[in-house]
Each structure stands twice: as structure tokens, then as C-alpha cells.
Design a protein that fits this description.
Elements lengths: L1 E3 L2 E2 L2 E2 L3 E5 L4 E5 L12 E5 L2 E5 L35 E5 L2 E6 L1 E6 L4 E5 L12 E4 L5 E4 L19 E4 L6 H11 L1 H4 L8 H26 L13 E4 L1
Parallel strand pairs: 14-15
Antiparallel strand pairs: 1-4, 2-3, 4-5, 6-7, 8-9, 9-10, 10-11, 12-13, 13-14
InterPro entries: Kelch-typ_b-propeller (IPR015915)
Keywords: Kelch repeat, Repeat
């Protein structure tokens, strides 16, 4: 596991550490071409290269690159150009990196070109959230703040909503499982007759739905929530 940058008692950092998950030993990786110090950036590894993008930090003057292994070529730029940002998230699928932080972008790490995801809803802004790749090839986004943190007249609105960005059509198996679950009142007694992986999938989905209902009920009884979370763990599919 690799950890890059962040903010410590000395200010913003551009140090890159590697954690050996077998020995739980940290190693500082030194380089003469480190990105500028930054906080709230996104980073990933691909083909033995370290990529870093965005974040808060001081002037990049004197540093070899602004975004680590990703170098903007102003004369041969391909695709749209992103606005500066921080506290976004990134998830990689193959050679493509999906960046989400209010709006959505895809970075082709082979051509270093950006493509804007214009089908995402404009009313789902998010920062300080997390995203990951699911086994079904979806981008799962959770948590974060969803209002303007620079408007001090507003209380921070922390989201417990789960966003699912569907990147390809569901398989026939997934469509069938969804249909079986939607007819739960008629099919639940027969789930255990299915192959075990399918039965477990339906049971796990049912548990998550029960948690969602319980969370919604708790939020109705206490709109602020125990930890200040003011949105239930709802799920939204974006396709």
C-alpha cells in the first residue's frame, strides 16, 4: 500500500511511503522528481508508475512536475481541460481512471487525455468522499460533504448516500438476480434452493436493504444524527 502527501505539523508533504502488508513495515521512497507538496490530492499506481493529480499546496515553482507522472502538455493537449480541484476521488479500471468530485472525468493514462462524463447528475456534488471499484465493474462512491464548505452561513451537510456509477450494461445474471429480489415476497422462500453464491447474493442484498430502512427510521427520529450525519444511506444508480 502506498501513501502520498497530506498535511502534517510541518505543512503540506510530498513524501511517498510504501507499507509492506506482510511485515507492516513502512519505507520512505525518495525521488528527485517528486510532485509538489499537496494535501487532499488523488493518486494511483498503474504499470509501475505513480500518478498524482490535484490537491491543495504551495506554488509548484521549482518542481519537475505538477501532477507526478501525469504531465500536462499544453501544446499537444487532447480533450477537455479540468478546473483545479481538491478532496475528490479516483478509481482505476484498466488504463482508465475515473475522477469524481462534483463532476466526473475519465483520464486515459495511455494518451493522457481527459473525457468529461456529461451524464452525471449536477445535483450530486461531493468532496472528502471515497470511491472504489466493485466486482461488477461499477464505481461505488460513498460519504463526503455535499454543500459549499466556503459558505460559513451553512452547516456542513455530510452525506451517507451511496452513488453507483454503472459503466457497462449489467450481465444477464445480474438482471435476473435483481428481478428475483424485486419479487422477494414471492421468491424469498425459494432462495435457498438456488446455487449457494446466488443465494448469498440475495441474502446480502436483503441485509443491506434492512440496514437502509433502519438508518432511514433513525434519521427520521433524529434529523441531526448521532454523528451529525444528516442523510440516510440511500443508494443511487447512475448509468
Amino acid at each position: 500500500m502506498y501513501v502520498f502527501g497530506g498535511h502534517n505539523s510541518f505543512g503540506n508533504s510530498n513524501e511517498l511511503y510504501r507499507l509492506d502488508l506482510k511485515t507492516y513495515t513502512w519505507h520512505l521512497l525518495e525521488s528527485d522528481q517528486s510532485p509538489s507538496p499537496r494535501d487532499k490530492a488523488v493518486a494511483w499506481f498503474y504499470n509501475q508508475k505513480f500518478y498524482c493529480f490535484s490537491g491543495f499546496g504551495p506554488s509548484i515553482s521549482g518542481h519537475m512536475t505538477d501532477n507526478g507522472a501525469y504531465v500536462e502538455d499544453s501544446e499537444n493537449n487532447v480533450g477537455d481541460v479540468l478546473l483545479p480541484r481538491a478532496a475528490s476521488s479516483a478509481a482505476r479500471i484498466g488504463s482508465d481512471v475515473y475522477l469524481f468530485g462534483g463532476d466526473g472525468w475519465i483520464l486515459d493514462t495511455i494518451t493522457l487525455s481527459w473525457c468529461h462524463l456529461d451524464y452525471l447528475p449536477s445535483n450530486q456534488p461531493r468532496l472528502w468522499h471515497t470511491s472504489t471499484l466493485s466486482t461488477a465493474g461499477e464505481i461505488i462512491i460513498f460519504g463526503g460533504c455535499c454543500n459549499n464548505i466556503l459558505d460559513y452561513s451553512l452547516e456542513n451537510k455530510i452525506s451517507g448516500e451511496v452513488l453507483t456509477i454503472q459503466l457497462q450494461p449489467y450481465s444477464l445474471l445480474r438482471l435476473c438476480l435483481d428481478d428475483v429480489y424485486q419479487r422477494k415476497s414471492q421468491t424469498e422462500e425459494l432462495w435457498e434452493e438456488l446455487p449457494q453464491p446466488l443465494c448469498l447474493w440475495l441474502q446480502d442484498k436483503n441485509k443491506l436493504e434492512q440496514i437502509k430502512i433502519s438508518t432511514t427510521d433513525d434519521m427520521d427520529s433524529d434529523s441531526e444524527g448521532e454523528l451529525g450525519v444528516n442523510e440516510p444511506g440511500l443508494a443511487c444508480s447512475i448509468s
